[in-house]
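Please produce the structure of this protein holding flavin mononucleotide.
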Amino acid sequence: MHVILMNGSPRQNGNTAVALKWMADELRQAGISTETIQIGDQIIRGCIACEHCVTSEDNLCAFHHDGINNLIIKLRQADGFIIGFPTYFGGMPGTLKSAMDRLFYAGKRNGRYRNKVGAATVLVRRDGGPEAFNQIITYYHLTEMIVAPLQTWAVRHGMKKGEICEDVEGRQTIRRHASAMAWILKMREATKDSVALPPAEDRIVMNFIR
Ligand SMILES: Cc1cc2nc3c(=O)[nH]c(=O)nc-3n(C[C@H](O)[C@H](O)[C@H](O)COP(=O)(O)O)c2cc1C
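Below is the modeled complex.
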């Protein structure tokens, strides 16, 4: 089993990096391999609604110049994803939002993220974390992913690099969150041949245009 961790911060080795390292350590202790990829410091443009990903055979994005298509391929092969990021004005940072729209609009085509396990971890100095967290969870829900359960809010505190290390409660909840994710991954693996997924159906799409 393999989990991709994505860091949505533009800062190398900041608080998000520490939170993701704690999660990766816990997963590896549970026998799950991990790969962490920094995306918040890249130049990533947003989705332009060209629908290339909908009509092309590989369902990849029309923009090949940045790393989004490589990441989509990795996500399709992984069993789960974790997205870590700092809160900016009560939401996710702009670069991460650009990446998320493309990773999920193109990447999910033909149910390719269905039944994968998702988790997220959010950094704040002070406030706005739950709103930012819920933005990410929406991507998971709309792609039929399984969201790992939490003991409490997935929000960790810190401003300057490394301050998260003082958030003792945050560290405990991160550890528990990662171990809950590992448990779901193992359940999913153990039942893949014995418990059938609900059958896929063609979507009925209405645009509310009369
Ligand atoms: C542009 C910008 C906007 C921010 N907005 C918020 C915010 O709305 N709420 C908050 O608590 N912290 C906010 N912060 C603080 C960061 O979320 C916080 O410093 C976080 O720990 C940074 O994580 P990193 O070290 O991984 O980059 C903001 C920081 C920046 C640079």
